[in-house]
Write a structure and sequence with these properties.
The protein has 213 residues and is α+β, with helices and mostly antiparallel strands. The chain contains 8 helices and 4 strands, in the order H-H-H-H-H-H-H-H-E-E-E-E. It has 2 domains: 61 residues, no CATH class; 118 residues, Nuclear Transport Factor 2, Chain: A. It starts with a helix and ends with a strand.
């Protein structure tokens, strides 16, 4: 497990405010980087620090009450975001049930759409949410959305393993409030799980929705 993935796994399990999480992230990355520069292997560092669950528990056990309250408020925000995402996903999935033969792709380049989807999945696999923001609409560029995506990934599995293969990519063009969009669905196989992604892209191929199961 790389340093970034190890640190992300710890951060996702912390019960504190976003500010405190960022402080701990910087401290962990600095501490691990210093150990690596000192000649210690990442495997030995992780063995010394413990599993992400144990490392996070040590932090959580020492947080003051106000941090635990902040974490609870944050969970409520994430839940609200998740509900909105589910409602959007239901709309997409209902549309997806329409006969494929009646759906034509007139205003999108299929090769470009597929290339963008594979790029987004690359970024999701790498937990590179900072770069992913460049390919998302403004409403998707929030910490709450990123946390909801992380939570959704953890609900599928905390250890997906390496990506193995892409399945067929299905596209459906639609119009929402006068704006064209494309719904994209693809199944991706990993070492330890299989994930079906449903993306919504706007006319500029910016991600406007995502659903995983």
């Amino acid at each position: 497990m790389e340093m970034k993935k190890y640190v992300n796994a710890i951060i996702r399990k912390l019960k504190c405010s976003h500010t405190k999480k960022q402080e701990i992230r910087k401290w962990l990355e600095s501490d691990i980087s210093a150990a690596l520069e000192g000649g210690e292997s990442i495997e030995h560092i992780m063995e010394r620090m413990g599993t992400p669950q144990n490392a996070a528990k040590e932090f959580n056990d020492n947080f003051p009450p106000e941090e635990l309250k902040a974490a609870k408020r944050r969970r409520n925000i994430i839940t609200a975001v998740a509900v909105v995402a589910v409602l959007a996903a239901i709309i997409v999935l209902v549309y997806w049930m329409l006969p494929k033969g009646s759906v034509e792709i007139d205003h999108f380049n299929e090769a470009q759409v597929e290339e963008r989807i594979k790029l987004l999945i690359d970024l999701l696999d790498a937990d590179d949410y900072e770069q992913m923001r460049e390919y998302a609409i403004a409403e998707m560029r929030t910490q709450e959305v990123e946390d909801a995506i992380r939570q959704a990934k953890d609900m599928i599995s905390t250890d997906w393993g390496a990506r193995q293969s892409f399945g067929n990519i299905y596209l459906s063009e639609l119009t929402q409030m006068g704006q064209r969009a494309v719904a994209v669905q693809v199944n991706v196989s990993y070492e330890n799980t299989s994930v079906t992604y449903t993306f919504m892209l706007d006319e500029a191929l910016q991600m406007s929705g995502i659903y995983m199961k």
